[in-house]
Structures are given as structure tokens and as C-alpha cells.
Amino acid sequence: MAAIGGAGPAQVIFEAHEGVCGGGILFLLPALLAVGLLKTKDVYELPANHYYGLESVVLTLAFMALARIKNPEQLKQCKPGEIGRIIGLDRIPEVSCLRDKIKLLSSQKKAKQLNSLLINHWYKDSTGQEAFMYIDGHVRIYHGYSANLPVKFVSRQKLCLNATTEYWVNDSKGNPVMMVMGELSEKLQQVIEFQIIPEIQKTVLFRQPSPTEGYDKDQTPVCTLIFDREAYEPAFFLRLWEKYRIAVITYRKNVREEWPEECFKPVDVIVLEQTVYMHIYEQKTTLGGVAMREIRRLTASGHQTSIITTHPTISSQVVAGRMFSRWSQENFFRYMIADYDFDKMIEFGTQAIDENKQVVNPDYRKLTHILKKEKEKTGRLRASFLALTEQSIDSELDAIPKLEKRQAILTEKIDEYEQTIQQLKAQRNSIKPRIILKEMPEATRYNQLKPESKMLMNIIKMICYRAETSVANILAQTLVDQEDKRMLVKQIIQTNADINPDLEQNTLTITLHTLSSPRFNRAAAALAALLNETDTFFPNTKLRLIFKISAA
């Protein structure tokens, strides 16, 4: 009846099975639930007569991400019955069915609400504590033809390509916190002030200490943002402090003067939970009329790395440690691209952008690019002309006529390029540098890929990454080599397991098959013992999960 829409969601029923493919993924279920996977029930809903309920759909999406099934199409290569046994059903949704479920959830446009709910869940125990958050943009290349997207520079490919930008916020440990989607070619400053801060203000991360805590509004920031030079502007830093009481930590641009090396003192700095020996020094500085603190690190080669901050109280060692820990976010991007393939398009199609939004005129940008190339050519010709002039000074009289002839040819070419440059400048001056979208031709007018489904799947992957990280940290406590922890988590996910329900005792026993080495089995056994203490119940059932290791 449920299959034909005549009843509610299919009931979750487990039967005894041996050697279920990838059954070890259930070892991550307690972590998924603890991180807040089922908070989706507080935000989203599916029709009551659908065969697959919300819990089953969300579990399927999470298990797909953890199992490195990177898009619904790859389910065609999987065994639907085997994965179905893991979620307590006869099979997982078929590709088109799952896409319909994602589309139905995305149409509710509640991804931001879910993200805020999760943030309050993740940081509920840190209320009143100052938050340090890393912000950076990730460029997502678009290879299709349906959307008209602005061109962006993709640093990892050293090319300008059609792309969108996702702006990610990570906490001080490198865990993802939130993501906002760029529409056009917004600067990082605009995204921080008009998209990220309004979302942070809705959560516990926006610290509002009470007067009983000795709160000094002139000295205590509500949170601190850490980013690279892309958002560098002293006036912007001052506005964040005066308007929102938000401090910043970033690298300084255009450092010309050097400080005396004898000023730098050796200190221990905590970077990504590791103690690093550094030579640093701090002094006050004024940039663009804004007073800030400047902290520099002296490297072994004599280079001075300059960091500036508007935070008035934390020590220079903490500032340096926070800034140099920014690589945790780069590592997060690298891991997500490699393992979760989070650049994949989830839902096909485009949607319009507000026609009154202002953008750089594509024609103006094209002429600017051509003008730049012409100036580069002229510069090279002038350099060649100067080289010939210097050569003629040291040459014999017989060689000078040939040199002068070559100089005359170069002069003629330089004049031609100069005329072209002047024509291009005149042509560019007749074009508006910026226009609004409705002034663009309809055929080439910018639009955007549908963002809601991508935001939803990114949140699911945030949950999976956090769950995987928590399990990896538990395993690391019993591993000699800390670098093996994530590899071991992935091995557990891919390992077969026996599933045995006991309906009289209301238990569901998951027995993981042996792993690739005894030390991994010992680590997994310690993990199982800890998971058993959590008294986790499988969603939508009364079955308490019991974890075992066959090699124990």
C-alpha cells in the first residue's frame, strides 16, 4: 500500500543477515545522530503517504556521502538491496525517486534554517565563549551550457572559467560551520557583511555576554573572523568593529619596511593543536587611518610575515596561532574535493537573479582585457628598443646602421600599438563600466544554478564530515600513527558486517568483520565499546544498537 501511495512511510524492519556489503557504515550512525542528522525532521517534511519517509531519505543521503557514492547516478552501480538492509528497508530509493525527494526537500527552501538549527546544536555548550571563525571562498567550475555565469579565476587550474563561488565558514578546529552561495562576482567583503554576519547573528556564535561577566563593550568582541588578503581593507575592519563589534585577523598587504631582527623574541605558538617554536614581535600600527595591532613572524630565511588584527585583548601568540591555523580550512577543501566530490551538481536547471543587481559590464571587461594585452606588447617592444640603444653604444660604427634600421622598425610598431591603445581607450570610455542585469542582452544575461539543493547536500556533507572526524579522533587515541585515523574510518565504512536483530530484547547487533591488521581491529574494538555506552537507538525503531568486532 505504501508503494502505491495508499499508506504512510514503509516500516523499518531488520532481519538477520550475514556479510552485508558496507555494513560497517553503521558504526558511524551514533556519531551522525549526535551531530544532528535528524534535526532535518524539525525543518523539512515529506508527504505522509510516501513510501520512503524523511528519516530513510536523510539516512540514505548521509550513507551515500560516507560511502563515497558521490551522486545519485552512481547508485546504478550499487546493490540497492544490500544498502537497503542497512537502513531497514527492502531497498534504497531508485535514482529518479531519490532525485524527486531531493527536489521536494529543496523546494521548501529551508536550508538556511536547518544550518542555523545545527549551529545552535553544535555550539550549545559554548554559549558565552568567543568564537573564532575562518572564512574563505571556494570556486566551483561549471562545465555546462544552460547557465550564463560570470567568469572567475580558478587558482587550482590557473584559468578564468565560468564558475560559481561558495563561501565557507569553518571553526577553529577546521570543522565546517556554514556555507553561503554567491550569485555573481561578489567580493568577500560584501559576502561577509551582508550574508555571513546576518546568519551568524541568528545563532549562539554571536556572543552576547551579560554585564555580570564583566563585559566591556569597548574591549570584548562578539566573535573574531579570520580570512586572507582578499578581504583586506582597513576601513572595512573598522566598520566591522564599530557596527557589529566583530574583530578580524588577517595578513597585511603591501609591507615595505622591515623591523629590526633583534626585536623578535622566541615563543611557543599553538598551531592546529601542535606547539610551534616561532620568533614574533608586536607593535601598534595605523593603516588607512585605522589603529590596529601588527604581529610579525621572523622565519629562518629572514622573511617577516605580517599579521594585523583589531582584537584588543588576546596575546600575540594566540593571534599568530589562529592565523597560521587557517590552513585547516584549505585542508578541509582539499579533503572534501577528493573524498566527497562536493563540487558535483545536485539539481539541473537555472533560476533568474534580481534584474536590478549591478554587475561589471562584460563589454567593458572585454575591452579592458584587450587593452591590457596591447600594453603588454608595447612594453615588450619598448624593452627591445632600449636593448638596441644600449647595444649601439658599445657597437662599432659599421654595425650602427643595421641597429638604427631595427630601431626604426620598432619605433613604427610602437607607434601603431600606441594608436591602437588610444582607440581602445576611447572605445572603452564610451561604455559604462557597470550596468544592471536587465541592461544585458537576454541571451547572455547572467543567471544562476539552482542553489537550494546544493546548499542542502552541503549541509548533509557537513554533518557527515563532522561525524567522520569525531570517530577518527576516537580511533586516534588507540593508534600509534595518527595519520591512519581517517584511512581507518574509511576502511570501517567499506567493511562488511553481520546484522542481527533481537526483537525480544529490542537490540540490533552489528558485528564488523575483521580489518586489514590487528592494530586496526584493536582500535575498532575500543570504538565499539565506546559506542555501546551511548545507548543509541536506530531511527524510527525501538532497537538499541550493539556493536561488536568479529576478530575480538
Question: Can you tell me about this structure?
Answer:
By secondary structure, the chain is an alpha+beta fold. It has three domains: 17-108 and 456-549, no CATH class; 113-340, Transposase Inhibitor Protein From Tn5, Chain A, domain 1 (Alpha-Beta Complex); 362-431, Methane Monooxygenase Hydroxylase, Chain G, domain 1, CATH 1.20.58. It has helices spanning 29-35, 54-66, 80-87, 95-106, 111-122, 188-200, 234-244, 316-324, 327-340, 362-394, 400-429, 451-476, 485-494, 518-532; strands at 17-20, 131-141, 151-154, 159-170, 176-181, 223-226, 246-251, 265-271, 274-287, 290-298, 304-309, 350-351, 358-360, 434-436, 448-449, 497-502, 507-512, 544-549. Helix 1 (29-35) packs across helix 12 (451-476), helix 5 (111-122) runs parallel beside helix 12 (451-476) and helix 12 (451-476) packs across helix 14. The longest helix has 33 residues, at 362-394. The protein is globular and about 105 Å long. Mean pLDDT is 90; it is low at 210-215.
How confident is the prediction overall: mean pLDDT? 90
**What is the domain tally?**
3
Gyration radius from CA atoms, angstroms: 29 Å
Distance between the termini: 43 Å
Name the helicity range.
Answer: 25-40%
| CATH-derived topology of the largest domain | Transposase Inhibitor Protein From Tn5, Chain A, domain 1
